[in-house]
Amino acid sequence: MGDLKVGEQDLAEMSSMIQSTVVMEASKQVQALLTSLETTMLDIAITGESGAGKSTFINAIRGLSDEDLGAARTGVTETTTEPMVYQHPKLPTVRLWDLPGIGTSRFQANQYLKQVGFEKYDFFIILASERFRENNGNLARSIRAMDKNFYFVRSKIDQDIKACQRHQNFNKERVLTEIRTDCINCLEKEGVESPKVFLVSSFELHKYDFHKLQDTLVRELNGQKRHVLLLSLPNITVEMIEKKKESLKRHIWKKALLACLISALPTFPVHYNAPLLMETLASYRKNFGLDDESLNTLALRVSKSPCNLKKQITSSLGKDFSEHSVHSALRMAALGGRASVSLVERHVPLLGNLVAGGISFVAIYILLSSSLDSFAQDAQNVLKKAFRAEEEEKLEAYYSQDIGFLYD
Rounded to whole angstroms, how far apart are CA atoms 319 and 297? Predict the structure, then answer.
């Protein structure tokens, strides 16, 4: 019989080969999970009668004004003659469809849903302005009959409020309640049970019911579609920012594990995970509206200085986002995470060996998690500054002045 003795070098090579195979397979699996998440399509149909403000509503959700490049075309007459798709500027897999106005000569109510291809949309938002129309009820009933969700949005509420302010004994809350109740009653008369009605101004999303619409959409979607919807919605409430943060945190382990696995492969350079981390952190900043383009757009929308909004960003990576600052933050995370390494090694032994250039799974996880926390806080600070009333700011400036002369 031949000599069955295996040398130490042979064992080392065998161990290395097995580990590389395991790492390669694991990295493929994690990459598949991330790819599935990042390629999930969400198709939202915006429909209603001509003149309801569909295009302006689409632009507002996408963070654009009607004059911006790539904005949906608006006009006083019906400008949409066939379904037009608009990608979200930050999330191309989220598509908003501007559907032709129902009841026009080319799109009669009884054939409307078939003509616009209703089956490809995840849900419908029906926009109506001014008085409730019979076509709105027919459309809502037809969508419900086809087992699709719809949400009825009464648009241009700011115009209604402005018109009612001329009346004696004007009460804004009473006006809003009357409009909402009228829409619900009209839909119920058309045979639509328990309709969801929201009052919205596309020029003032932070007012009225838009936050309720956001919460409802998020609550009624599941899985990956819920995640991409969350990331696409504008940051108009602290609660929405927190929901985005928690949704992103549920996927941190995939990003951290992939970066760690890739670095352990001999076919990749040690610092291959650096661009992956930069890309991930950059996407977080965009999700929270902290990149320059988002801040400039918000500043224009609320008529405030971009510099004043940027001053609300206090996190280190929020103020200085560069490869050098990311590496520094990663080194700090590695130092702070050493106490957790033994715990990880006990539960997932392979991860204990996946250390490349001093960068471990634990360090990457801590960096991404802490960055999400600080970016979310920055976003809340920007939100409060952006929508703080001018009167409050003047009062704050007045009381912050030196009033020491009172004690002279």
Answer: 18
